[in-house]
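3.2 Worked example (two chains)
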Amino acid sequence: MKYYVIIPAHNEASYISETLNSLLMQSVLPDKIIVVNDHSTDTTEEIIDQYSCSHSIIKKINSVSSVTHMPGSKVVNAFNKGFELLDQDFDIIVKLDADIILPPNYFEKLTEIFKDSRVGIAGGIAYEQDKEGEWIRTHPMNRDHVRGAFKAYRKSCFQAIGGLKSSIGWDTVDELLAKYHSYIIQTDETLQVKHLRPVGKSYNSKARLLQGEAMYKMRYGLCITCIASLKMAWKQRSFTPFRNNILGYIKAKKENKTFLVSKKEGEFIRNLRWKGITQKFFSTD
């Protein structure tokens, strides 16, 4: 299988060398690596240039955007600029953050996973360092969710979902739309991916309402949004996520934000969410 990797990078001088080294040490090398230098003001570009000069599979593109690190549109816009440079002669397209260390057998194991033609999206499990320096799984996810920091897409699935949405919620709606098109999402517990910077550490404070906005744009409806937000609040032992999500949802509705999915896709998503809610509610585990 041919793997093309796109890495959006904004002020990643502290991490990007480790990310690129982990790619170059893969037992199955990617065929192309596009690093999008997204308006960096540190030495990120110089580091990318050092690698691109030494390794022909690595290419750089410069992108000018906002210096504010907001989840969603900024990273997807950078990804899409990198994607525009690529030909269509690939089997798997990978969106990778610039603060990730992949295990050396990452693409080798993904190749085995993607032999199942039903699999549309695949990836490993994120680990972050605790205060003692131990790598721990700090963000437990369902087996059918791959973190946005390291997502691999089968070409036909990527095309079916219309690529990545330039909006907050892109890394949830992609999986929902993959399921809508009858693909499955698969993670491999043995692929422990090191995430060097914890989620959200670089986000602007204005991002706090965007989760609720995403739920509106995915056509969750207020009831599912409330249930999902209560779950988030319970996990974080704080009422703040619930309040912010509801405020974000209401704000997006008042502003008549553009939906990310069609009415038919939205109906499928709501039914899927209700199915998941009822299964967990009535589960005896």
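3.2.1 Second chain
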Amino acid sequence: MIKRTRDPCWNKEFQFMLDEAPLEDMIHIEIMSKRFGFSFHSKESLGHVDINLADVVYNGRINEKYHLINSRNGVIHVDIRWKTI
């Protein structure tokens, strides 16, 4: 969570080990806002994006900005790489 900004930068890295290439799968990334008020916490979706992982496998990498679905003007920059060992 990054407080008090409309342009957060998480710069997080995640690694997943897979037994086979995810040619039929998609990754769903959803951006959430955490609202505070009246002594309770609520979450609100700011938008999402679905990325076809076959594109990542065939190209080796996707490094693009995506317009968030169900968002007025939200954009997310995603860098996904496919490496075989």
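3.3 Remarks
DSSP finds one helix and four strands in the chain.
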